[in-house]
Design goal:
Blueprint lengths: L23 H16 L6 E2 L7 E3 L17 H11 L14 H12 L34 H6 L3 H11 L6
Helix pairs in contact: 1-3, 2-3
């Protein structure tokens, strides 16, 4: 049986990027309030009830989650997805439930957790100037810290790429 999601539950949206670093404790509060019911306290999700392969609600961290090279491991990418789709069946691109601030901090909290390592990440972006600013692994074409690339604040990095390379980065 093929299940199709309504178009409202697909894709990403943009957020107004806060000019602050992710607050992990605030992100945890949002996770506990809005995400834990489906993805569980340990972030490992819920397997399908019929014991088939896969998950009813996928793991957000741990061994079976997306790896540390996935697009969702970037705070700004994850925040855009969360805003447009989560909580499931409560939010859509046109009618999000969570604010930009909430999705930003909860995305950072989720991405602060352990996950599988992707090999050869250094080859992902042959032109490092084009790498999204919230990519949490180097190399980068700037001197911002790995911590800032992972958790922000991102506006100073965005401004740097605009000034130095005339690149407009949105994530």
């Amino acid at each position: 049986m093929k299940i199709e999601l309504m178009d409202d539950y697909k894709g990403y949206t943009t957020i107004e990027i806060p000019n602050e670093a992710v607050g992990l404790e605030y992100g945890k509060e949002i996770y506990n309030k809005e995400c834990m019911v489906c993805h569980q306290e340990d972030g490992h999700g819920v397997k399908k009830a019929d014991f088939s392969l896969g998950y009813e609600f996928p793991p957000l961290w741990g061994d079976n989650s997306y790896n540390d090279g996935a697009g969702m491991h970037r705070v700004l990418t994850a925040a855009g997805f969360i805003k447009a789709n989560m909580p499931f069946e409560e939010a859509s691109r046109d009618n999000p439930k969570l604010s930009d601030k909430e999705v930003y901090h909860v995305a950072g909290y989720i991405n602060s957790k352990p996950r599988p390592a992707k090999s050869n990440k250094e080859n992902d972006f042959p032109d490092v100037k084009l790498k999204p600013v919230s990519t949490p692994y180097g190399p980068w074409a700037d001197d911002f810290s790995p911590e800032q690339h992972k958790f922000g604040p991102f506006p100073p990095i965005i401004a740097y790429y605009k000034e130095k390379y005339n690149l407009t980065k949105l994530k």
